[in-house]
Amino acid sequence: ETQDEIANALGVSRRYVAKLLKPLIDEGVVKHPYVVDLEKLSKLNIKFDTDIILKEILNTFEKMGNNVLSNLDMAFIALKNNDIEIAKSIIIQDYALNRMEEEVNIMIKMDALKYLPTTYAMSLSSIASNIERCGDYISNISEEVVNGLKIKNKELRREIDEIYLIIREMFMEAMDVLKIKKRNSKIFELENKLHKKLEKIMEKVSKEKGENINYYIQFGMFLKDVERFGDRCVNIVEIAMELYHGIPRNVLPEGLKKNL
């Protein structure tokens, strides 16, 4: 807007608008012709409707994260104990996460956020999508339990416990980066650890399968969902790092990154 338009919107004189703008222009917060540097503006600690909505979006992310962790814990309990009822309850609850993702996308479209950079809004939407997809993979694991997936021996049970702890830590790390804006993360170390463990487990299952090819396929599907869950955790970290610190994301597809 011009100074006249700002004056009309505020119900004050154009001269007073010029007086208000001068210190902001001197500090480089506002540039001619009245383009706002959002990074410098944020350092002034002025509260806007935008801040309220962004805080609510972060609160929704936290609720989504709590939902994912709770269902992740229950899914692995269901797998270890072959508890079909717990597995079914997780599948039914998946709608709650979908609804929270929709809430985030509705808030992103509110008028108060219309001046945010497009890339910022897209990043928030992408974070919501990745958290929701983590929930989908948990639901997939629960479906495998319902369809008969079982852990056949104690050694394999220990291996499953280990990958559960790894992906749980990966998700908590991703949510920490998102919440407290950490610049450094151990997510990639955890990712490498997960992939090595998954390869080791698949090798064992391959030796155990005998003539039961369905068991091999079903366990392979389970491990693939675990791997994809980990990939989504990495995505959340990379998006948050780019959003908060301007660190570019790795744009290579997951499959190609692993091959490299």
Would you write up a description of this structure?
The protein is mainly α and 260 residues long. It contains 10 helices and 2 strands; from the N terminus they run ααββαααααααα. The protein has helices at 3-10, 14-26, 38-42, 49-81, 84-108, 118-146, 154-180, 187-208, 213-245, 254-259, and strands at 30-31, 35-36. The protein has a two-stranded antiparallel sheet. α4 runs antiparallel to α5, α7 (154-180) packs antiparallel against α8 (187-208) and α8 (187-208) packs antiparallel against α9. The longest helix is centred in the first third of the chain and has 33 residues, at 49-81. It is elongated, with a radius of gyration of 24 Å. The mean pLDDT is 87.
Which structural traits does this protein have?
260 residues; 2 strands; 2% strand
What is the element layout, followed by pairings?
Elements: H1 3-10, H2 14-26, E1 30-31, E2 35-36, H3 38-42, H4 49-81, H5 84-108, H6 118-146, H7 154-180, H8 187-208, H9 213-245, H10 254-259
Antiparallel strand pairs: 1-2
Helix pairs in contact: 1-2, 4-5, 4-6, 4-7, 5-6, 6-9, 7-8, 7-9, 8-9
Helical percent range? over 70%
Order of helices and strands: HHEEHHHHHHHH
Task: Report low-confidence residues grouped into runs of 5 or more.
Answer: none
The neighbouring-strand order within the major sheet is 1-2
Shape type: elongated
Specify the biggest β-sheet.
2 strands, antiparallel
Compute the number of helices: 10
